[in-house]
Amino acid sequence: MPNTLNQIKIAKSFDLATNSYDVSARLQRYSGKHLMPWLPQERQLTVIDLGCGTGFFTELLSGNFERVIGVDISNKMLNYTRSHRKVDHLVAGDAYHLPFQDNSIDLIYSNLVIQWCDNLAHLFEELMRVLKPGGRFVFTTLLDQTLSELKSSWAQVDDDKHVIDFKKDIDILSTLDSQGWELTCHHVQDVILEYENVLHLARELKGLGANHVPKKQHRGLAGKDKWQRMTQAYQDFVEPSGVYPATYRVFSGQIVKPLK
Ligand SMILES: C[S@@+](CC[C@H](N)C(=O)[O-])C[C@H]1O[C@@H](n2cnc3c(N)ncnc32)[C@H](O)[C@@H]1O
């Protein structure tokens, strides 16, 4: 299961967010639904929902495919899914070391998970190992413009890391290219969510479990003074209506494992 200290911390933040996740997951619902038209039409498939979280999409996929397995690194998320969704198969597992045999899976669906995986080459290798030839990996992730308003507001206060390092699209494309895999389709979209204030944004990120920031030097909450300076800097982005925007750059993609 979680193999590194960083993954243990990621699993712990998602554990803690289990009960607040669904009410905060407006971006996740939107991006996950936009992947649906890319899914194959055949029913008789074995499908993984990788990083299934509270199982909203695992349940939806279970209505479309014969065998759907939710996989997550967080045991609390899995327990929540077990008790709230109509889902037959759930497995604790880490995306880098999936508990499945080579060439055994037809489709891997994954919504807003792989931004938590630093080593994309290692991740894609593992996904291609378990997919059957001709099998598909259909996914969304977040790119580096995500939370640019928050990142730039913090940058005016200190040089610590307050937002995770999201990959650039070129990182994804060049990793695939170096391994000889091809994106058969992809799409990038900026989704701008609206908040009442910066505290509302911070609470939503915490409610989603997205508040663990690897490589942050100073743990815990920032002091009151720093927080006030950051929220002051965020005013530059506030719209005339008083709405606080936050940008999420969503990358959706599909990779098909070559037949040979
Ligand atoms: C933002 S949530 C998305 C949940 C779900 N896919 C959805 O659309 O609502 C990310 C999920 O990925 C899981 N996760 C993060 N890193 C993982 C890894 N290395 N292996 C498996 N699951 C992971 C987290 O525990 C969390 O449940």
Automatic annotation (TrEMBL):
It is an enzyme of class 2 (transferase). Its EC number is 2.1.1.197. Residues 49-139 form the Methyltransferase type domain. It catalyses: malonyl-[ACP] + S-adenosyl-L-methionine = malonyl-[ACP] methyl ester + S-adenosyl-L-homocysteine. One of its GO terms (biological process) is biotin biosynthetic process. It comes from the Bacteria. Pathway: Cofactor biosynthesis; biotin biosynthesis. Keywords: Biotin biosynthesis, Methyltransferase, S-adenosyl-L-methionine, Transferase. Converts the free carboxyl group of a malonyl-thioester to its methyl ester by transfer of a methyl group from S-adenosyl-L-methionine (SAM). It allows to synthesize pimeloyl-ACP via the fatty acid synthetic pathway. This is Malonyl-[acyl-carrier protein] O-methyltransferase. It comes from Thalassotalea euphylliae.
